[in-house]
């Protein structure tokens, strides 16, 4: 789900790290699927766990902060135009798509609000390594994901109010407070710990993605168990909404990069920064402010965008290698 901190934020630099990244991209959706199945099979087991969702998200965001360095922010200063374009594309395309899809599919108010909330969330950090696997611009990907997360308290609540307010009451002020507590403060705390105890944290970086993955899995099991009774009738429609939302986001994100003439690697990064969302945050906010049913789109999005991201990355990587081989043959 985002909050997909199931894989490292930094660019892999060795074969072993590359293998770890690919393994995480493969294992994470399986883990989330297993969690969803458990919530569906024994919903009563997790009935009283709803209040733990914000704390679990806080763990994920704290781990994100631990993996961040000054380089992530320096990238913003070096390429403000590209990062700004990524932010505008992310916070325009995905919220707009969420609203359009909710209307086009005539979703119920709870599900419509949930789909829109997913669109209004910041970038999912799994996008960083998926960008790497796609031979994209990882530095741009990390910069956009970092800034979109920092800006989430200022952007996500008003966007949700604007687009989802017609379906359900939205307390934007309370939502700002929740994002500050569950996203920004844990990220800043992680940054502080990394700054003062970096040499110790470096030894733990390999374990952080899996700690985050477990926390996200628990969020999914709680969300699914809370709406287990409604899933059988709504799951097919929500899956369709999620596939359309994610797929069009990837396509339009790539198109935005191409239209701005950022180059192929940067356009690949734009695709994933637009199409992959912090669905953990969306699930937490939907559970707290709407209902467990409204959090269902975020739970399904968490699984699907990791699967689709890995597949699209593999296809982009294949095309990039083929193009490079052709250029090398022509030069020879």
UniProtKB/TrEMBL annotation:
Reading the lineage from the top rank, the first entry is Bacteria
Where does this polypeptide localize? Answer: Membrane
Which one Pfam family would you cite for this protein? SBF
**Which residue ranges are recorded for the region named Disordered?**
1-20
Stated membrane topology is: Multi-pass membrane protein
InterPro entries this protein is in?
BilAc:Na_symport/Acr3, Bilac:Na_transpt, Na+/solute_symporter_sf
Ribosomal protein found in the keyword field: no
**Which residues lie in Polar residues bias regions?**
1-15
Protein keywords: Membrane, Transmembrane, Transmembrane helix
**Positions of transmembrane segments:** 20-41, 53-71, 83-105, 111-131, 138-159, 179-197, 204-228, 234-257
Kindly give the PANTHER family that the UniProt entry links to this protein. Answer: P3 PROTEIN-RELATED, SODIUM-BILE ACID COTRANSPORTER
**Which protein are we looking at?**
Bile acid:sodium symporter family protein
- Organism this protein belongs to: Streptomyces beijiangensis
What does UniProt list as this organism's lineage? Bacteria, Bacillati, Actinomycetota, Actinomycetes, Kitasatosporales
């Amino acid at each position: 789900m985002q909050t997909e901190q199931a894989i490292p934020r930094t660019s892999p630099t060795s074969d072993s790290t590359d293998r770890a990244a690919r393994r995480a991209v493969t294992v994470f959706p399986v883990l989330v699927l297993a969690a969803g199945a458990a919530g569906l099979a024994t919903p009563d087991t997790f009935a009283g766990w709803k209040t733990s969702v914000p704390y679990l998200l806080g763990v994920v965001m704290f781990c994100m902060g631990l993996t961040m360095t000054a380089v992530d922010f320096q990238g913003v200063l070096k390429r403000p135009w590209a990062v700004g374009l990524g932010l505008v594309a992310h916070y325009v395309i995905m919220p707009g798509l969420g609203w359009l899809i909710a209307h086009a599919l005539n979703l119920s108010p709870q599900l419509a609000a949930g789909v829109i909330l997913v669109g209004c969330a910041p970038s999912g950090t799994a996008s960083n390594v998926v960008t790497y696997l796609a031979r994209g611009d990882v530095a741009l990907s990390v910069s956009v994901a970092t800034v979109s997360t920092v800006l989430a308290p200022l952007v996500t609540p008003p966007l949700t109010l604007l687009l989802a307010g017609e379906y359900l009451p939205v307390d934007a002020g309370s939502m700002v407070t929740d994002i500050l507590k569950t996203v920004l403060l844990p990220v800043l705390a992680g940054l502080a710990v990394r700054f003062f105890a970096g040499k110790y944290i470096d030894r733990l970086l390999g374990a952080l993605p899996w700690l985050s993955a477990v926390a996200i899995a628990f969020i999914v099991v709680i969300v699914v168990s809370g709406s287990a009774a409604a899933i059988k009738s709504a799951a097919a429609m929500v899956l369709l909404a999620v596939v359309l939302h994610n797929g069009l986001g990837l396509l339009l994100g790539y198109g935005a990069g191409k239209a701005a003439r950022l180059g192929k690697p940067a356009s690949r990064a734009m695709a994933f920064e637009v199409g992959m969302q912090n669905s953990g945050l969306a699930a937490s906010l939907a559970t707290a402010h709407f209902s467990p049913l409204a959090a269902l789109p975020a739970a399904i999005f968490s699984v699907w965008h990791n699967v689709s991201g890995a597949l699209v990355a593999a296809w982009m990587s294949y095309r990039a290698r083929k193009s490079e081989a052709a250029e090398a043959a022509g030069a020879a």
